Amino acid sequence: MAAGSARYVRYILVSFFVLAIFYFVSNSADIATPLRTQIPTTKQPSDGSSDSRPAAKASPNDAKVKTTYDASQFPMAMTPNDPGWNDLAGIKGGPRMNATFVTLARNSDVWEIAKSIRQVEDRFNRRYNYDWVFLNDKPFDDLFKKVTTSLVSGKTHYGLIPQEHWSFPEWIDQDKAAKVREDMKERKIIYGDSISYRHMCRFESGFFFRQELMLNYEYYWRVEPSVELYCDVHYDPFRFMHENKKKYSFVLSLYEYHETIPTLWDSVKKFMKNHPEHIVSNNMMGFLSDDGGETYNKCHFWSNFEVGNLNWLRSKAYTDFFDSLDRDGGFFYERWGDAPVHSIAAALMLQKEEIHFFNDIAYYHVPFTHCPTGQKVRTALKCHCNPDDNFDWKGYSCTSKYFEVNGMEKPEGWDEEGKD
Ligand SMILES: Nc1nc2c(ncn2[C@@H]2O[C@H](COP(=O)(O)OP(=O)(O)O)[C@@H](O)[C@H]2O)c(=O)[nH]1
Ligand SMILES: [Mg+2]
Prior knowledge:
Layout: H1 2-32, E1 46-47, H2 60-64, E2 99-104, H3 110-123, E3 131-136, H4 142-151, E4 156-160, H5 174-186, H6 195-206, E5 219-222, E6 228-229, H7 237-243, E7 248-250, E8 253-255, H8 264-274, H9 285-288, E9 299-301, E10 306-309, H10 310-313, H11 316-328, H12 330-333, H13 338-349, E11 355-357, E12 363-365, E13 368-370, H14 375-380, H15 399-405
Parallel strand pairs: 1-4, 2-3, 2-5, 3-4, 7-11
Antiparallel strand pairs: 5-10, 6-12, 8-9, 12-13
Helix pairs in contact: 3-4, 6-13, 8-11
Bound molecules: guanosine-5'-diphosphate and magnesium ion.
GO molecular function: alpha-1,2-mannosyltransferase activity
InterPro entries: Glyco_trans_15 (IPR002685), Nucleotide-diphossugar_trans (IPR029044)
Region (Disordered): 39-66
């Protein structure tokens, strides 16, 4: 009888102990993830042309945008040796820039942009919660808004592009433009017969940065459908741009297809003659021309990836440049792309030092890859790109030229990796 009740007491004690452990473990799991609760669980997409940031629902970003701060109070870990390098969990403390991701897309791009967003969030934005602006020439549908809002950790905004930013200007001769498209189709020039592609290139050249939703921001990071980010981004590239006075940045550069821009350089030369006040003396003409500006060597930064300063694009210098090119009609009489337009503007109207190459942001847009040079860098950033795919030092890339004209040393390992 005594032995039986002792066993009974032991059972009760063991059960109590097991329950206590269970209670402790489930409770401490809650304590271990307090930051999750700071992410708003019900995010509403904000809509359309009338939307504005001050009226928008508060996002984690809003409270933190703070462009006057003591940078030494919030050191950024730029290399693996810097304190805080491995601090990749939870929401990052410290200042946020007045910045947003921006994507131009069609409703049919939803699943391809979903992939891009997932990568940007996983590699960077989940810790920073920057906003994301989506722009479209047609209203975004509910599926697009629902999927993208669920994936973006910051606040999402959806803008409808005004018709005058996505149509033929009145000075364009429609018959001439139609003949060009017909001719380019016969010559099998990529997107040569497309009207919408031309509207897209003109919009990205001259209008995305002055959409109502974009007026609320100072910096942007452009993201296209189906792109990949192959490495962790340990620091805030927007903050890097701000603190280092950078206005434009790139990861891939290459030569433009001549057939799409036969008279672009003539237009640029005309602009330089008419507006010498906009051309800075410390420019990067050497990146664009191998004969002191006589001819264009077709080098450009690939603009499907850009982190840049919107105030620069909204400046008189840039808008005069765009207006001058737009008047010449090459967006429709040829097929000028926004990449050479942005690049030429940056190289002529920014100080050399204001243009930055992000070796540590690994990127893919069909068919080119930027995989960071340097095995140590790739390991530290947990990259999953194949260094053999890196385009930077191959013959058709202009990145070597960028380093040479700036007298910069190429990243360690450049001569051993990713050559043809
Ligand atoms: N809303 C809208 N977006 C477009 C249109 N055409 C292209 N885009 C977007 O513009 C960007 C560039 O287009 P894309 O087809 O990727 O051109 P590529 O990268 O030069 O081959 C992408 O973000 C597309 O989603 C269009 O007709 N309407
Ligand atoms: Mg694309």
